[in-house]
Amino acid sequence: QDNGFEQFIINYCNEKLQQIFILMTLKEEQEEYVREGIQWTPVEFFDNSIICNLIENSTSGILAMLDEECLRPGVVNEDTFLTKLNQLLATHKHYESKETQNARHITDSSLPPRCFRIHHYAGKVTYNVTGFIEKNNDLLFRDLSQAMWTARHALLRSLFPDGDPQKVSLKLPPTAGFQFKSSVAMLMKNLYSKNPNYIRCIKPNDTKSAMVFTPELVLAQVRYLGLMENVRVRRAGYAFRQLYGSFLQRYKMLNARTWPHWDGGDREGAEVLLAGLAFPAEELAFGHTKIFIRSPRTLFDLERQRQERVAQLVTLIQKMFRGWRCRTQYQLMRKSQIIISAWFRGKR
């Protein structure tokens, strides 16, 4: 209920993780249809980049304003910080405070003074600015580094190189918010270079009890995690897509024209293959480089037919091998019998 500086930067990180989830699972999903030339109806979804920009913008973001107040000479406290936020973000639709509400003639007793509220992707969160300046300066870390540098243990000294008095810089040390922002930026760069897979954990109840399911709690989590938009995009689009070459290699045994060898192009082979399977036209879409299948049911049907065909081919291979083995064994026995008979007749 009482959110301070720590919860603010944690929620900032959550917002950035939600942004990468949106970009990689929703935005790129729709952009792939455009790249492949697939006709479909776009699904509207909320892009939380406006919230991330509200927090991390280098000139007018909340973290930038906080750093500016921490480094500004003169009397500095949380009230001046909140006043500056109210001036710069008065018209921002995802920011509000008591002063901005009064300017808009909004009566809201749930928002106390010395607080501001951000409309996050997952809902509204109220932050108390008390302690923001002190925690952002993070003087404890500086003193701790200097203390650890005086330790005799070599490992402790190596863990706190900032405490070396010979390396003391005339520049002001980076604030906690700046360091956290830099760490989040490195994390995002690392994640963008990967191909992530998401596992979304849903908490069924607040008491951690077995066999207890709270629908309201689960529904709230589904909404806040962005799963509703994800499902809408998936249902409006195609559940399965694969490059023509890989698709043809896996399913070419289902059509006599493509099995065992197809001499034409991969796309033509996929079209010939699927034309012989009589799937509804609305279930399939042919992109520039990929085949798209709308419903999982069609894919399951393909896999079932493939398993049946593989069983038939295995039976054929076994039959041919057994026939070859029996013929070879018979020919050896016949050859042996002829040799034995010839020697026997000669002896007699």
Offer a quick outline of the entry.
It is built from 14 helices and six strands. Helices cover 57% and strands 7% of the residues.
Could you explain how this protein is built, in words?
By secondary structure, the protein is mainly alpha-helical. Among the domains are: 154 residues, Methane Monooxygenase Hydroxylase, Chain G, domain 1 (Up-down Bundle); 60 residues, Alpha-Beta Plaits (2-Layer Sandwich). Helices cover 57% and strands 7% of the residues. The chain has 14 helices and 6 strands. A 3-stranded antiparallel beta sheet has the order 1-2-3. It has a 3-stranded antiparallel beta sheet with strand order 4-6-5. A hairpin with a 2-residue loop joins β2 and β3.
Poorly predicted regions are none
CATH class of one domain: Mainly Alpha
**Secondary-structure arrangement, i.e. CATH architecture of one domain:** Up-down Bundle
Helix fraction by DSSP (H/I, runs of at least 4): 55-70%
Inertia-based shape: elongated
Q: How many DSSP helices?
A: 14
User: On the 0-100 scale, what is the average pLDDT?
Assistant: 84
Distance between the termini: 112 Å
CATH topology call of one domain: Methane Monooxygenase Hydroxylase, Chain G, domain 1
How large, in whole angstroms, is the Cα Rg? 34 Å
Strand content: 5-15%
Strands ordered across the widest β-sheet: 1-2-3
Would you tell me the structural class of the helices and strands? mainly alpha
Major sheet details: 3 strands, antiparallel
Order of helices and strands: HHHHEHEEHHHHHHEHHEEH
